[in-house]
Task: inverse folding
């Protein structure tokens, strides 16, 4: 399957929120939908789910207009959407039947996923009596209840401790390996880096960066190196480099334990390494810079 979001525009009360959002995601892959608070991520997800219509633009599945009612979709909204005064097993089994499962299948699937997320012991408790983290796990169980082919997770790690985060990570990896199509929205960049081959970065209602994550990292790290020296802080090294190697470098950025150096266009990596060696520095690290997703995010949307 291939889901295509094409040129979506959306306004509320005369204010345009989305200005032509476009991206693609395929089965067996995960797309990281990223952006600052208020960038338009949740609005985009709600348009995909047909919770409201776009002003213009198309959402296609395998080249045809996408109708969420025709597919099993596991959707985890950022806000909790279950019934707080209903018992856990009772309401999840009921929701499973609404989504097409038999009563037996709905109960069996509910018990499986409650056990998988470690909340089976609360099956006969009202949802409101559970902790925030356990409520999140119940909602996750509901998301995977009907073995969905399309999975949309909006901040799924909210409220989860490290142990339960690992359980969810294992489930997500399994779903991708099974060929599911997954859209993953989160502010936790290391999770996005773990799961997502593709990203779409939204800023103020526009997609400002989209594509294969590894290719984006390679492009952003182009012509840059990371360097550190034994027994010397990054600040000390930066002062030396700026003073003695101005004919070789274009930019120096200081990190906690190393420098990021961008060479002048005419300078080779070998020339820089030779110059450092001639300065009698005990080089600890000299490698091509591969930026983290957080680095790219901050650079692209200007967040401080």
Result:
């Amino acid at each position: 399957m291939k889901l295509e979001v094409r040129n979506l525009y959306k306004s509320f009360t005369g204010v345009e929120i989305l200005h032509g959002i476009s991206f693609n995601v395929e089965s067996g892959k995960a797309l990281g939908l990223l952006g600052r608070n208020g960038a338009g991520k949740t609005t985009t997800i709600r348009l995909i789910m047909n919770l409201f219509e776009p002003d213009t633009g198309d959402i296609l599945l395998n080249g045809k207009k996408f109708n969420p009612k025709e597919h099993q979709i596991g959707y985890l909204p950022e806000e909790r959407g279950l019934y707080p005064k209903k018992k856990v097993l009772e309401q999840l089994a009921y929701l499973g039947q609404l989504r097409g499962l038999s009563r037996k299948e709905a109960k069996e699937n509910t018990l499986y996923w409650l056990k998988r997320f470690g909340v089976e012991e609360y099956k006969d408790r009202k949802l409101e009596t559970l902790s925030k983290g356990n409520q999140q796990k119940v909602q996750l169980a509901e998301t995977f209840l009907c073995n969905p082919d399309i999975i949309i997770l909006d901040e799924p790690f909210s409220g989860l401790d490290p142990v339960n985060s690992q359980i969810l990570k294992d489930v997500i990896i399994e779903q991708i390996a099974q060929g599911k199509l997954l859209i993953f929205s989160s502010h936790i960049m290391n999770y996005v880096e773990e799961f997502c081959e593709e990203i779409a970065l939204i800023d103020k209602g526009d997609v400002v960066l989209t594509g294969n994550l590894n290719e984006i990292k390679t492009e952003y790290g182009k012509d840059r190196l990371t360097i550190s020296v034994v027994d010397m802080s990054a600040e000390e090294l930066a002062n030396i480099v700026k003073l003695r190697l101005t004919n070789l470098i274009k930019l120096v950025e200081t990190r906690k334990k190393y420098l990021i150096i961008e060479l002048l266009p005419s300078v080779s990596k070998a020339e820089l390494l030779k110059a450092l060696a001639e300065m009698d520095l005990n080089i600890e690290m000299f490698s091509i810079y591969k930026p983290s997703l957080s680095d790219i995010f901050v650079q692209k949307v200007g967040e401080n």
User: Anything to note?
Assistant: The first strand starts at residue 2 and ends at 12. The mean pLDDT is 90.
